[in-house]
Amino acid sequence: MSLAELAGTDYVCIVQLTDSHLFAADSDDLLGLDTLDSLNSVVDLVLSEIARMDLVLATGDIAQDASELAYRRFIEASLQLPAPCHWIPGNHDDAAMMQRLGAASGMSQDWVDIGSWRIVLLDSSVSGSVAGYLADSQLQRFDDALATAGDRHLLVCLHHHPVDIGCSWMQPIGLRNADTFFARLAGQSAVKAVLWGHVHQAFDGERSGVRLMATPSTCVQFATDSEDFATDTLAPGYRWLRLYDDGRIETEVSRLPPGSYLPDPGATGY
C-alpha cells in the first residue's frame, strides 16, 4: 500500500527515533555508552511493540562524529523497520553529507504526505553551533508546505527545542529564532503539532492549541529540570504517534527495561 492509499485507514502510525549519536569506530562511545548497540536494542523494542508502522522519523544528531560510516550504520539499522525512514540533521551532524546520502536513499525530503497528514521536515542545524536557527529557506519551506497542504493536517519536525523545557543549561542551545517560528504557526489551524529531538528527554506540552513534543534519545538520557548538565538513569527509548484522519494525535514514549545502557555517572558534558 502506498502512502497516499493510507488516507482512508483512520490513522497512520509514526515511529520517532532521535539522537542516536553514532560513531565510525567500534571502540568509540558516548559517556561510556555503546550508541550503536543501544540504537539496535531500541529498534528491536520497536519491532516487538509496533505491529503496524507507516513511517519512521529520525530527528537529528544521527552521528556524533559526522562520519559517513556512522550515517550508513544508521541507515542499516533503520532498514530493519518495515516502513520508510526520513531524517533531518542536528547540531552534531554534517547536513551536506546527510543530504547527499539521504537523496540517494530517499531519506531526505522537504515534506512527506501520508494519509490525511503532511509531515514537514525542517533543518534547524547551524554549522559550528550547538544552538539551532531556522534560516529563511527553512521558513519558506514551512510556508510552501502549508500553502500546498490542501486539507491535510501538519506535523512539523525539527531538531532543536523551540520552547523552554525546564532545563536551564539547555535554554541557550535551543532554537534561537523560536519567536519567528511560532509567528509563522500563529492562526494556522492545520498545524497540529511540533516534534523535536536534541533534549534527550520526553516532553509533552501545548502552545496556542499546538501540541509540542520531544522524545528520549536512543542512547544517553538527560535529567529533567536540571540547572546544569546532568545525565539520567532512565533507559533509552522512542516515541510512537498515531495521527488520525480527523487531526487527533495519540502518542506515547516507550523505553528499554530500567537499568539498560547507563552512562558514566561522573560525566560532566559531552
UniProtKB/TrEMBL annotation:
| EC number in record | 3.1.4.53
Which top-level enzyme class is recorded in the Swiss-Prot or TrEMBL entry?
Answer: hydrolase
Calcineurin-like phosphoesterase domain mapped to chain residues: 14-201
Is Nucleotide-binding there in the keyword field? no
What InterPro entries does the database record attribute to this sequence? Calcineurin-like_PHP, CNP_phosphodiesterase-III, GpdQ/CpdA-like, Metallo-depent_PP-like
| Keywords recorded for this protein, A-Z | Hydrolase, Iron, Metal-binding
What one GO molecular function would you report for this record? 3',5'-cyclic-AMP phosphodiesterase activity
Q: Does the keyword Hydrolase apply?
A: yes
- Which protein family is it in? Belongs to the cyclic nucleotide phosphodiesterase class-III family.
Q: What is the recorded name of this protein?
A: 3',5'-cyclic-AMP phosphodiesterase
Q: Which organism is it from?
A: Pseudomonas neustonica
